[in-house]
Amino acid sequence: MPSLAQAALLLSLAGAAFDESPISEAIPGSCESRDAHFLRARGRYEGADGTLRRYAPPVLWTVPGSGNTMMRQLLEFATGIRSGSVQHDSRLIRAGLLGEGRVDHNVVAVKVHHAAFSTTLPVHLVKRGHGGNVTKTWKGLSVTAAIGVVRDPYNAFFAEYQLMHTDFGTHSARAERANFVGGDFAKDALRFARLWNRTMSEYRDFSKSVCYDRERDLPHLGNRETSRTCRLGIWKFESLISKPERLRALQQIIDFLQLPPGREPPKSRVECAFELSDLAAGKIKRAHDLDGRYVSKKWAFEQAERATDGLVCRFWEYVRQWAQPLGYRPFGGASCPLH
Fold this sequence. Notes:
disordered N terminus, 5-stranded parallel beta sheet, two-stranded antiparallel ribbon, about 10% strand, alpha/beta
């Protein structure tokens, strides 16, 4: 059973803290695409009280395969501000995400998959090597908040599998059956299940961590903070692709950003983000398989089950404590025993 801390996070994941009143999505007939830009002056702006403040972009922290790239596109189309990343992926630059490699206060959010944070204030993103030693620190960004996007773990794994097992490793490519090895698929799946579960626990730990200092004035964070805990907001990927839910979910995320005054996008621009993202989808979404040449999720798990008996349920053992309360179930309706 989840602990009390896990249960509290699950309430956040389920969206219990948000307004559930109906919201309609009236997508304009024509949405004009505008180039996104970086914020100026390293995110500094004048607050309502006349003090100099600084925008602190959240880290956009997801398990691989959970829609991080799609989320970056939506945020850029909605806010007109480019998103950053700790990586420098030329494929994403070609797809239009020109903030690749930027980790600073001039971006709307910073993509990370395997997040690690400094233990001293102000908090920075760090990269840890073998043995837990810090090998790199991104001091251009003071971390105060994180946005998590959580996806059905089986779907997230299969999306990541296809990215890692294609000739060019593009976000729109598909893995071919001719190159499929069931035993390797099973090993990758169980490794991913452990990562998915660990990331959920890391979300919980981050929400209990200290990002602010009550005793010191921190101009690089904007002002003297009164809260010690880091801000964490988590949304389900499925709510961002469901037409009845996606506009509300994206608006909640934009509100969570706490953008500088005057940079909050109008509702029409938030609505347009989905239409523009759909138009750009060919660069990051996979086309349908019309001739049976490519690996499907159902086919892959069926083949892998022959190499690794009980794969679906072994995967479920790793993710159950978080996945089940969120409404996720074992792939294919499998009946997995409790242990």
